[in-house]
Design goal:
This protein is mainly beta. Helices cover about 5% and strands about 45% of the residues.
């Protein structure tokens, strides 16, 4: 994701989990949130939210999109995901679906919500 300086999780040769996007990197917080705002437990599916020094502050010249996407320092990714702890003790990120579809129209990015 460009909003996260591209990397949130990475696969290590020491802890590979089929279907995982990799282990959440140090100094990056990830949480899974239900549509009602409840933070979900390990293994539950919801929207991936990301927080860290690597996350941008917002969209230049687009305060509406910034207000909708960045809340209390958390980036609302629009991805449906879950987090699971591996046998090696690392937290893996699994992106399973997209909650918002993005469509580029005449140079503008439009968000279509599936909710």
């Amino acid at each position: 994701m460009t909003e996260c300086s591209t990397v949130v999780a990475n696969t290590s040769t020491h802890d590979i989990w089929q279907g995982s996007s990799g282990v959440i990197l140090p100094n990056i917080e990830c949480r899974i949130v239900a549509p009602d705002g409840k933070v979900l437990e390990e293994g539950e599916r919801g929207e991936l939210q990301i927080k860290g020094d690597n996350v941008t502050l917002g969209y230049l010249g687009n305060p509406k999109a910034t207000k909708e996407t960045f809340i209390d320092g958390w980036l609302l990714s629009g991805d449906e995901a879950m987090i699971k702890k591996s046998k090696a003790g690392n937290y893996h990120l699994f992106v399973v679906d997209r909650l918002k579809d993005l469509v580029k129209v005449k140079g503008k990015l439009t968000t279509l919500s599936r909710r």
